[in-house]
Amino acid sequence: MTNVPFLDLPAMTAEIRPAVDRAFAGILDSGAFIGGQAVADFEAAFATYCQRQHAIGVGNGTDALQLVLMALGIGRGDEVIVPANTFVATAEAVALVGATPVFVDVDPDTLLVTPDLVVESLTHRTAAVLAVSLYGQTPDLVGLERLCRARGIALVEDAAQSQGATWGGRRSGSFGTAACFSFYPGKNLGAAGDAGAVVTDDAELADRIRSLANHGRTTHHQHEIVGLNSRLDALQAVFLSAKLERLDDWNAARRRHAARYRAGLASTAAVPVATAPQATPVVHLQVVQVDGRDELREDLAQLGIQTGIHYPVPCHLTPAFAAWATRPLPVAERAAQRILSLPMFPHLATEQVDRVVEAVAARRSLQAIA
Ligand SMILES: *Cc1c(COP(=O)(O)O)cnc(C)c1O
Questions:
Q1: Taking the complete model, does pTM exceed 0.90, yes or no?
Q2: Whole-angstrom distance, CA of residue 115 vs CA of residue 216
């Protein structure tokens, strides 16, 4: 029996259901399923939300990353910095454009990249830094922006997990050359299927991405460049527009749950990932680091508490990326053994947080006795 689920998507959908039903009906009647006003409206709202001039709706977050790299002309012979602790899609996009992912280690407390860790890995071939705002917290994007500008390389944020987060008051998505979002259903701003977006202030880059994502079109029958098909559907756009209005409230609820977890877990062996003073995270995942992670996970499962691991194998050690695993990355490798993602979603009840905390605490005292 599940006492505390990992995620509750239907509860989020229920809040927007009347608006979505109305909007879906309008699109079904209009027949405008790809692009059109619904997509333009969402793109405008999301650009404003991210403090950017342009947003381009695309098929998913992985395509968003690949399209930005393609639009920047990054490919064979270029190196792109990628944190070892991320979802494989970040590195996948680099490999798919023919460039070389250069994996770097992460900070042991936040599990994010830092400007210092990036500097050590720059070479004359480095064309871009893919900074991942993992778990809902941005790394030091001010420092990374300064570094990339000084070196004349692109800073691209993988903001798949950080819709609404800020660093120094600036929104995730507003830093560097461009930022890439995923609206995979489980993300903080999730679609009813696959969807993604790129945001940028560079009008020319935005045009190129829009064209690349639409078969390299300039006009309907004019194909200037080889592109792909990665467009945002109108049904997804209206679903996302409805959810965007709720996002700040939902993120605030996540932060309240995170604060309760932090207070409750303080006397246990499970240590939540650290938050930088400049950061306002949106807690996509409530990750703790703990010894004996697998046993704890099993104990929690027995109590009906669902957990996850993000991610069990660091990117450079997954078979697909073995060719680019050029050196050990000890922090990411050790963290992969110790990270556990606890239940986290806006509609989580206070009692459910307390039940998880009690279960973690009980296990520690048992260990102490043994
Ligand atoms: C989800 C995710 C992606 C990929 O997004 P999709 O929409 O699933 O393609 C990329 N990077 C990170 C960090 C993610 O969490």
A1: yes
A2: 35
Each residue's pLDDT expressed in tens, for the chain with a length of 370 residues: 679 999 999 999 999 999 999 999 999 999 999 989 999 999 999 999 999 999 999 999 999 999 999 999 999 999 999 999 999 999 999 999 999 999 999 999 999 999 999 999 999 999 999 999 999 999 999 999 999 999 999 999 999 999 999 999 999 999 999 999 999 999 999 999 999 999 999 999 999 999 999 999 988 888 889 999 999 999 999 999 999 999 999 999 999 999 999 999 999 999 999 999 999 999 999 999 999 999 999 999 999 999 999 999 999 999 999 999 999 999 999 999 999 999 999 999 999 999 999 999 997 555 544 4
Measured between alpha carbons, how far apart are the two ends of the chain, in Å? 28
Residue 214 structure tokens: 């639409």
Name the nearest CA neighbour of 73 among 53, 49, 98, 42.
98
Euclidean distance between CA atoms 213 and 66, whole angstroms: 10
Atom of ligand 1 nearest to the CA of 195: 7
Beta-bridge partner residues of 272:
288
Q: Is 110 in the pocket of ligand 1 (CB under 6 A)?
A: no
Under 8 Å between Cβ of 196 and 181: yes
CA distance 202 to 41: 19
Helix, strand and coil in the chain, % to nearest 5 = 45, 20, 40
282 Cα–ligand 1 center, Å: 16
Q: What number does the ligand 1 atom closest to the CA of 65 have?
A: 10
> Ligand 1: distance of its center to the CA of 61 in Å?
5
Q: Is the CB of 158 under 6 A from ligand 1?
A: yes
